[in-house]
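User: Is it possible to get a 3D structure for a protein together with its bound compound? The compound here is arginine. I've pasted both below.
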Amino acid sequence: MTNKMWGGRFAKGPDAIMSKINASIDFDQKLYAEDIAGSKAHAQMLVSQGIITKADASAITKGLDEIKAEIEGGKFKFSQALEDIHLNIESRLKELIGDAAGRLHTARSRNDQVALDFRLFIRTAVDELCVRVKDVMLALAEKAEAEAATIMPGFTHLQVAQPITFGHHLMAYVEMLSRDLSRMQDARKRMNESPLGAAALAGTSYRIDRTATAKALGFAGPTRNSMDSVASRDFALEVLAACSICAINLSRLAEEIVIWSSSQFNFVKLSDKFTTGSSIMPQKRNPDAAELIRAKPGRILGAFIALSVVMKGLPLTYSKDMQEDKEQVFDALENMELALAAMAGMVRDMKPNQTAMKAAASTGFSTATDLADWLVQKLKMPFREAHHVSGRIVAMAEKKNVFLSQLSLAELQSVHGAIDASVFKVLSVEASVKSRISFGGTAPSNVKREAKRWLKILKVKTK
Ligand code: ARG
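Assistant: Yes, that's possible. Here is the predicted structure of the complex:
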């Protein structure tokens, strides 16, 4: 049997393998709501422009609503022979309302239809992602405010570097996520133009009103070139790029949670809610959620690469290659949302172990820079020389196996005679973090202020 929607010039139906490779209904049925919304807006416009009758338009609208209910009630029979969601819905509409259904596709093509559906779907998903990103930021900022003065080691090369506060560390991710958020919002803004009415590729001779359909579907306006409208998927690429970067950022926090919750570090404790046990080792509490978030960039970045390769070198305008734009995008968006939701839950859930964090912050001679700074400020030493003197003191402490603050004044003076007892004020980890009041520094007063600032922004924004 030839395809009943376009088979007019065909004598024979497709080979079974052809049907299988050609059909997208197994995955593009996800677009049913967008397809119906687009068709309803199109029918409304056609009647307003006097292209179809009121009676046809209302039959179409009613029929589409019925189809939506059928799909949502699990009663709709999707057919592979009808290829995709567009033809499945139109064919069912014909069964329900008869000939009027055939007028819906006036001044439209599946090319602008699929471009529209895909944009609508991704736009909704991006809106949901933005809410999720803000929620992770909120969870982080709340924890940061509570832990603004909790001392932990800051690392470079994963070696103890300088004391910082846990709040400051968490706020670093708030900044990172705020850029992810703004990339997503930016992509949304750019993609918010309606391709509907571009028809196959060249526009149409009917007196359609593209501004009206754009407005009805919540777009800022219509796209300005019919060929670009049906040929472009950079809106999807841009969202995938933003998601990839966000997933990479999340994976770093996830990795830190894995490290922090290990028994060697013991910086945070995750509850039963976001961990799993081992089937053989009864003592285990595994940070599976964090590990899975750490893994998500694999598929999300994978989706970006897959679609980039599909689009690369494609001549204008639509080619069937572009049907391969959907599955990975769906998967990436779904997993991005899941990763963000799990991260928000995990951040709210984790309990810092302040004693272990502070003890670790005191190791590794983490206040050696403070000592050097003291030599510069108090003894007017050039920084390079102070660095050297401080280094010799570290070597002495290392040899004696004590913290810098545990060296006696006499021992310090054996390295440099001008050192006096006021140096001990800067050698503690508390004094160190307190002194870091430069803009963006880790001083608890800074961290509190920044956390409060973000909380205000986020609470206003998420309302
Ligand atoms: N299923 C197709 C897709 O997802 C819809 C567009 C088909 N257009 C066409 N001219 N065959 O890309």
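The longest strand covers residues 159-165. The pocket of arginine is lined by residues 24, 28, 84, 110-111, 114, 318, 320, 322-323 (CB under 6 Å).
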